[in-house]
Amino acid sequence: SLRIKASVEQSLGNSRVLMLLGQLEKLNGEAVLSDAEVSRHITSKILHLIQTQEKTRKEITAKGSSGMEVILASLEVSGGRRVGVLVSKGGTAILLQLLITTSKEWPPSEELMLQLHTILAKVGPKDRKFGIKARINGALNITVSLLKQNLQNHKLLLPCLQVLRVYSANSVNAVSLGKNGVVELLFKIIGPYSKKNTSILKVTLDTLAALLKSKANARRAVDRTYVPTLLAVYQDWHRNDTRHRHVHIRKAILGCIRNITNIKLGRKAFLEADGMRILYSTSTECLSVRTLDPLINTSSLIMRKCFPKNRLPVPTIRSVFHYQLPHIPAEGPVAQLYRQPPDVDDVVDESDDNDDTEADTENDTENEEDEKNHKTQNDDIETDISKLRPKENLTRPLEDLKMYECFFPELSENFQVKVLTSCQTPAVLPKSLAPIVVPTAHAPSPLSLAQGELTDLPLDLDSICISKDGPGGAGGAGEGLAQELERVALEEDTLNGQSQSPVVGSLQGELEHDDDCSSHSSGELGVLEVPDTAALLPLHDPELYIDMVKGTKSVPQYTEVAYPDYFGHVAPTFREHILERVYGVQRAKIFQDIERMIHPNDILDKVVYDLDLKRLIDDGESLKFNSQFESGNLRKAVQVRKFEYDLILNSDINSNHYHQWFYFEVSGMRVGSSYRFNIINCEKVNSQFNYGMQVLMYSVQEAISGHPRWVRTGTEICYYKNHFSRSSIAAGGQKGKSYYTMTFTVTFQYRDDVCYFAYHYPYTYSTLKMHLQKLEALRTPQIYLRQDVLCETLGGNSCPLLTITAMPQSSSNDQICQFKNRPYVFLTARVHPGETNASWVMKGTLEFLMSPSPMAQSLRESYVFKIVPMLNPDGVINGNHRCSLSGEDLNRQWQRPSPDLHPTIFHTKGLLQYLSSIQRVPLVYCDYHGHSRKKNVFMYGCSIKETLWQTNVNAAACDLQEDLSYRTLPKILSQLAPAFSMASCSFVVEKSKESTARVVVWREIGVQKSYTMESTLCGCDQGKYKGLQIGTRELEEMGAQFCIALLRLKRLSSPLEFRNSSHFLDVENDLIESRCKVTSSTTYVLDEDEPSFMEEVDYSAESNDEPEPDPDPQETPADEDGLSDSELALRRS
Ligand SMILES: [Zn+2]
């Protein structure tokens, strides 16, 4: 320090800049934090002088001057903070100019070049525009030629490489550097394992990785056969770095491979170089050392990317079942589906293996400007105020709406005595002619248990023949439940007579190989005693359920009944916690998948269930699958290994996608073995299965031993992108997409069990009909309950409509008048068949409305409830996830529903339009849904103001008057219902939702309190149920709480009450808070608010935009220049 000071004084005399440098140097020596402000001041003065005075610049950079050293030392003292000052004062440009000037001198001063590059290496990463500035100033070539001349000069090499690394982060620079041979140059520096010069190697690899992000450079590297070279270098380091001192080098090598394999040629080269095996075996050897996780994760990322894309093993992605529509609208998705010639392969795209379709990158790299403003607004928010204002005109003429008058007799009844008993029962439905079969079990020995005598020993299900013959058969009155249901055998001639039916055919198959059972067909029958679920489940009755099934029309003409729907479900009393994610689960699963390729001989690939072939395969060695019952939707099961099965879900009818809901049966399991199930054609980019949600399992053995219930089951659950390619037809035109795997592992407890798996608690259409009949029985003289058939669905099923209110207390005029003037509450549910939770919430609502409690009575006296409990019966029956038989999402049809294609929506809207036409607009409308990506229960509502706040049209929102009462009901719910979360509610109207029930009922019908109520499929992360998965009890409770909230809403509308409770509701304060949230920098996102978890391997990214999977924990500041890789990455992104 003294030496520098002396030399500065000597060479520069007493110039101004010298004085400043001297001061700065003194401060550097002291390095006291409180002096930071002073040194900042001095630095900026020096910069100013350099910038404005040619003389000063010369003074500083002159030979023998130590000006640069002082600046350098100054930058080193307080880490990156002074660098920031330098950048903010325009220091980058000055330094770059100094570099140019110096390079023009001959011979250029090596010392000065070294110093300048050392400073630039520090300044560069702090300056977002550094890459552009360097290019514009012509600095790129100076560094490159300096590098070329000094490959052996390690002292100079390091800072040059460090600067080059920063240059390379800019994509335009990367292309230009590649053209100048920098990729080849860097490869000269990379050598075999050596403990020397690891800093240089690390920077070289990082720079190379940055350059290889350019597709042109990646192609160049493939052409020069660098892929096998990099793999060999990686193996070399893997072998020699036995004490794991250089994980950062090994990871940097993988970083280069990762970027090369972003192009198809790179992946090909990787496979040809045996990359899969190399990375697989090196990773396997790393598994035991936790600190090597970054290597394993990056390796697995590369292997997944390079894993050859497989064809989904189905003939077509269209649904196995087809339903002939009355007409096919030219613009609809179904027309698109059937416009394709029947023989077109829609499973994979036409092979384009030979030509590398990746566009040349010279043109696609001009994206450096997009870094400037990454605040992307959610462009789905409706900004057109005219689309947010009420729509006045009714789309249907008044005389047309007259047809709905008959659904509102409560408005005209005068309650003479006879009327009081005239409530209709539901329309009698035509009975199916096919036999109804409770499937699967067969029987070596008759078994009989007295009713109620439940045994703890698991029953041998193989010893039981359960079946049910056609309508009209069996069932003497007054007998026990078991006798009524179970004594009827499936006659062989019945089977033969029905051999056309695929389902019966499959049963025959089972009979053939099951000697035990066929021996009983002669008349010796097994009797299965089932628990009296009626005692536990007031609304359930197996016999009635079978009756209901007979009237249910499915497209595949199902004749079987799934046990869980037959026995019913009694919610368990134990708590089911949200599953904690075990570290490394996804990685382990992916490695097992990769082993399919590494050890192909271990793979069975045996099809055990195939709906396309209409047959079930069973040789006694594999699990048996079935889903040919209401709401079932398994398409195919392939045994991959002894205890692993790939499962494929069927598409919604008349559609080629929407796979999420599942419901299927498994039997033939071994006790104690862990079975892995993979649903391999999932479509969503992420799932609550990554955040603690488990699948549901129903064990028939458990059921008959007294616990008929769905239980959250499964370990090692995760959801990730797999190697099955998704055609552009399936992916909405996008090429190169993959499906996702949802995997779970189950160990079965009972021998000869029959188990069912489902995405969520099933709730079939037949279950609804059974519940509605049972609700009739709850009617008291005080309750007005009417059940109508609103319309028939496309599939010929009836869509029930319920009217519930209180009978007038007397037939006095006052009472009749009060009765007729009760406001309407209009509720709907289950437009999306896969959202079964919505039906359980609705069940809770209906039970509450029919209950004898004073609160329920008070509620009935307050409102008339119009309820369509299942808007999409056909979708539910046929195991769809999203659509109706028209292949469309019915909750996108509310603007212009077609009476032929969307009858339930058309007529439900008709009811609302009728109410509007007679000035009886409902007070509240709510559509019950389920949400697959969020926790808790919450509501979406509609507010012009809150929508406009999301946009920049603030001015328009200011002079807009809007009643805040749309927030009241959700607010009440958040105080009443433990599962409900106000924080998750939103009142923003999105463009993509403009044809949903909620938005149309708000805009067109004029219901201010129009909501979608979303219930989680997973569980809660707040309130009383925090940390628990949601069950039917909580869902039903939610439905009841909704009713209580309506009662409170009514009380609040009394002015006196409102005054008392407005402070506790504090709706206005909430609103202000939510507005504050809006004005914060984060953009408004409706979906995905899960925090990331430990195992941060990508779930969604396609191969070209994968994020850094992890910050490198091995990075040591000594090795680098104070900035870690992740910091660098942050700067660059
Ligand atoms: Zn929904």
TrEMBL record:
Ranges for region Disordered: 344-388, 1088-1133
GO molecular function, one term: zinc ion binding
Subcellular location: Cytoplasm, Cytosol; Mitochondrion; Nucleus
EC id: 3.4.17.24
GO biological process entries: proteolysis
A GO cellular component entry from the record: nucleus
Reactions catalysed according to its record: C-terminal L-alpha-aminoacyl-L-glutamyl-L-glutamyl-[tubulin] + H2O = C-terminal L-alpha-aminoacyl-L-glutamyl-[tubulin] + L-glutamate; (L-glutamyl)(n+1)-gamma-L-glutamyl-L-glutamyl-[protein] + H2O = (L-glutamyl)(n)-gamma-L-glutamyl-L-glutamyl-[protein] + L-glutamate
Name of the protein described by the UniProt record: Cytosolic carboxypeptidase 1
A Pfam family per the record: Peptidase_M14
Compositionally skewed regions (Basic and acidic residues) per UniProt: 371-388
InterPro entries per record: ARM-like, ARM-type_fold, CBPC1/4, Cytosolic_carboxypeptidase, Pepdidase_M14_N, Peptidase_M14
Gene responsible for this protein: AGTPBP1
Family: Belongs to the peptidase M14 family.
Record key words, sorted: Carboxypeptidase, Cytoplasm, Hydrolase, Metal-binding, Metalloprotease, Mitochondrion, Nucleus, Protease, Zinc
Active site: 1014 (proton donor/acceptor)
Listed cofactors: Zn(2+)
Domain Peptidase M14: from-to ranges: 761-1050
Origin species: Scleropages formosus
Composition skew (Acidic residues), residue ranges: 344-370, 1088-1124
